[in-house]
Write a structure and sequence with these properties.
Blueprint lengths: L1 H11 L1 H6 L8 H16 L2 H9 L17 H90 L5 H21 L2 H18 L5 H15 L6 H13 L17 H13 L2 H16 L18 H21 L2 H18 L5 H14 L11 H15 L15
Helix pairs in contact: 1-3, 3-4, 3-5, 6-7, 6-15, 7-8, 8-15, 9-12, 10-11, 12-13, 13-14
Length: about 425
């Protein structure tokens, strides 16, 4: 017991001994060894304590080197160190287990989120697939309806044109005659209508069907009527009017509208005599001039002349040219009434302001009269008979319409 307390005292006073060395006493090596073993047990464990206890102190006697039994405090400290170490290991294990559990929970949450996102995408894709399937079904249904409508239209077209031989040629002839009637009525194009009727007759002739002889007879009568229509030379008439307009400037004016300069001798001598005469004569001349400027004499038995200066030849010529240009424009546009009115106005102007005794003026007046007598809109033939015969032949071939189709009035439309 005394040695244990000394050992404890030595352990407590270890630092003091390190500063002031003390004489070793008998039994001190065992205490120092005990203290070193206790300190080694705190730092290195039970193995270091055994190694420190086994080494003898330097300079100790041989009889003191005998091993002493381990004190009970060393075992308690070793147990405490082991318990602390076990506790640390347990805490580390608990921390590792907690971290692992937290990591697993986090990974599970991430997996659950990804699974939900994939499920949402799959649901969206399934919705899009269903929508596409519906649209495809609707498109297929619409295509089927259009195909059925197209089939019906083709069947109707086949029924109209006729499945029998030559039905489409008769339909072409009907179209040509209808176009000829429209050109006659809308554009008065006799040449175009005649060409269309000739094409229709050629189409019927290719069929070589004796049953179509009435159709060819009607077409022959239509061709003869179109060929007999008088066709005025509109282009030649327009060129003639342009040539007459160019000759207007060379025409002489009527004597009343010609530029005539006053005789300088008569007027100038009278005024000079008045200025050179006595004072009463000069006063009388001035009074006469003032009176003449106040009084204007007009003839009431003559028609009112246009508001043009009689001595302005340029305006008279320009006005006549404008009237001829208006007549040419009405001719090209096919307005017969305006054409005749413009020619009559030009002849009236020519006879009023230009010299009718001049040969050039007389020739222009004769040319205008001849142009005014031309017939721009002759009566046009009726093509409804030919159109009616062709439609009757079509109805007989198709067998679906009555033969007596009503003819179109006038234009055959």
């Amino acid at each position: 017991m005394v040695e244990e307390r000394k050992g404890e005292d030595g352990a407590e006073a270890g630092p003091a001994r390190a500063e002031a060395p003390v004489e070793p006493e008998p039994g001190a090596p065992q205490a120092a060894a005990g203290e070193g073993a206790a300190a080694g047990a705190g730092a290195e464990g039970s193995g270091a304590e055994a190694a420190a206890g086994a080494q003898p102190a330097a300079g100790a006697p041989e009889e003191a080197a005998a091993p002493a039994p381990p004190p009970p405090a060393r075992s308690a400290r070793a147990a405490l160190a082991f318990a602390v170490l076990a506790l640390l290991v347990a805490l580390g294990a608990a921390a590792a287990g907690g971290w692992y559990a937290w990591r697993e929970t986090r990974l599970e949450a991430e997996r659950a989120g990804r699974t939900a996102a994939l499920a949402a995408r799959i649901e969206a894709l399934e919705g899009r697939e269903a929508a596409l399937a519906r649209r495809l079904d609707e498109a297929l249904a619409a295509a089927a309806r259009e195909r059925a409508a197209l089939r019906e239209a083709l069947e109707a077209l086949a029924r109209r044109a006729g499945r029998r031989a030559g039905g489409w040629r008769l339909a072409e002839a009907e179209h040509l005659v209808r176009m000829a009637a429209l050109r006659l009525r809308l554009a008065r194009d006799v040449e175009g209508a005649l060409a269309a009727v000739e094409e229709a007759d050629a189409a019927v002739r290719e069929l070589a069907d004796p049953a179509l002889i009435p159709v060819r007879e009607a077409l022959a009568r239509a061709r003869a009527a179109l060929a007999a229509v008088p066709r005025p030379d509109v282009e030649g008439m327009a060129l003639e009017l342009a040539a007459l307009a160019e000759r207007v400037e060379s025409l002489p004016l009527a004597p009343a509208y010609r530029r005539a300069a006053p005789p300088p001798a008569a007027g100038g001598g009278e005024e000079a005599g008045a200025e050179e005469g006595p004072a009463w004569r000069r006063a009388l001349a001035r009074a006469w001039q003032a009176l003449r400027s106040l009084v204007v004499v007009r003839r009431a038995d003559r028609p009112v002349q246009p508001l043009l200066a009689p001595d302005e030849q340029y305006f008279l010529v320009l006005n006549l040219r404008l009237k001829l240009d208006a007549a040419r424009l009405a001719l090209l546009e096919g307005r017969e009434g305006a054409f005749r009115a413009a020619l009559a106005d030009a002849r009236r102007w020519l006879g009023t302001y230009f010299d009718p005794e001049d040969a050039a003026v007389a020739a222009m007046d004769a040319g205008l009269a001849r142009l005014a007598g031309a017939r721009l809109s002759p009566p046009l033939p009726d093509l409804s008979e030919a159109l009616e015969r062709i439609r009757a032949a079509l109805a007989a071939r198709e067998g679906g319409r009555p033969a007596g189709a009503p003819p179109a009035a006038g234009a055959g439309t």
